[in-house]
């Protein structure tokens, strides 16, 4: 029972660690020169802007992770994206994505908090849902130097609005001026408001979002900083000054979304082993080259549960040795079998009953035709640790170019299972009925087309195999690959990166283990 409890609490935290890696490569220094009006002395703690009943809040202090400067290839690429947008080179369907990408260096250069305060959906047809109401806000710690943020807002608004349809109103609040934009072509929730608040800058999306942040800032008792549970969780997780904090109000999200999405939020949380989870906080910080993660979850019946999810002091030396000395890494004790199964079940719980049936039929047909057993040959062979590191470095130093090592206990059956699944995916893609609008295989070998295309105009994925037997997935310029060594499943950003890891792991037998030099 105790081991099951630990597994259940560890599964849901992996997404937090992944988020840190996803965002860690986009911070870049920006410079702003003009000051805004303040109403009272600013606070160094952005939690004072966050309402106590917020649904989720993300604090980013990415500059502390040693983010790239203006000459970094990631920043240069984002600037190229911005230039292409201004020259109207980027196709219209992808302009929103390009605008978000162009905004990342500006946002990432400041400490900031992104908060979702309210959300609701409405049904559209028998299976679909559409956003009905949202309140979202971003607070950027500009400390009075707002020009870089204001300029970014101007650029984005110029591309989406015009005088015929858009209307900008000016609002005064205790000496501070904010601006509200509405556009008759956009849905009702797509109201934007922006302006200084204290020494920092606030951007609100949705009716009332800016007002709600302003009221919280004016009355400290309304903020999450005054909430006893948050204060204790933040202390236990060493949140103040952490590179990333992420708080989720699971109970509030369920209450907002449950009435219109047929119980799916609850089903997904139950599949993740978090059906009774009410609130959670996770923090990430760098300790030398190690990424350390602390979590605090509150359960309805069992109360608080604290864990150091990624702690190099408590990791077996064999896993530390698997990481090259020059690499940054996170090493997490996870029941990988349980974790993968729960993610699978959570995904299926988010689908319609018909889609779930198609997936089950497809895997049953796969096992019948190939003679493999995915449970016994793959899932039951997974171990108790996941290793993530950034070696070898991508030649362009692109983000998301990491290596994952999943511990296994027997390579031969794992290799057979991966060969069968990747081969089935490749076979499906070669069929004339395989549609580029869906990456989900059809239910059975006799099916002629997916029953419900997921997206239109999506990227084409190509599954291929190298001469040495290594599998890869080609998606545009991205080519992640997978292979099996004696002790790990290796997943990395290219076949060459996987081979480098294969060679290194094969040479580890007589090498001394790498151990951390400082405590987290």
Can you walk me through this structure?
With 520 residues, the protein is α+β, with helices and mostly antiparallel strands. The protein is built from 15 helices and 18 strands. An 11-stranded antiparallel beta sheet has the order 4-5-6-7-3-2-1-8-9-10-11, with helices on both faces. It has a 7-stranded antiparallel beta sheet with strand order 12-13-14-18-17-16-15, with helices on both faces. The longest helix is centred in the last third of the chain and has 20 residues, at 411-430. Residues 1-42, 64-74, 435-439, 443-459 and 513-520 have low confidence and may be disordered.
Question: Layout of helices and strands, plus pairs?
Answer:
Layout: H1 2-11, H2 14-23, E1 56-60, H3 73-86, H4 95-108, E2 112-124, E3 128-140, H5 147-160, E4 166-173, E5 176-183, E6 192-197, E7 200-205, H6 209-218, H7 228-236, E8 244-249, H8 250-257, H9 264-271, E9 277-287, E10 290-299, E11 303-310, H10 317-321, E12 329-333, H11 336-349, H12 353-370, H13 374-377, E13 382-389, E14 403-408, H14 411-430, E15 461-465, E16 471-475, E17 481-484, E18 488-492, H15 495-506
Helix pairs in contact: 1-11, 3-4, 4-5, 9-11
